[in-house]
Amino acid sequence: MPLCPYCNREPKEIPEYVELANRLEMSPAEYVRMDEGTYHLQTDLFCCTDCYIKQGLPLNTDLIHAFRRYRAKVLEFERR
Ligand SMILES: [Zn+2]
Fold first, then answer.
1. Does 3 reside within a domain?
2. With left for phi above 0 and alpha for psi between -120 and 50, is residue 44 left, alpha or beta?
């Protein structure tokens, strides 16, 4: 399931995506995977609009670094 690592919310928990997905008759997760500009396939992470603004409109390359670090940390944790 796609996740915003900044607020730990899935698309279905974010009203903006729920509404857009409903309009297109798809699930919020499908919507994010298809249409969210910050969505990163390899990590299955994205940055929701609220967090994007709070982070100061980061570049996609910066987001991808953050996503990779986040996933690496989770993997480390799961191995313990
Ligand atoms: Zn967020």
1. no
2. left
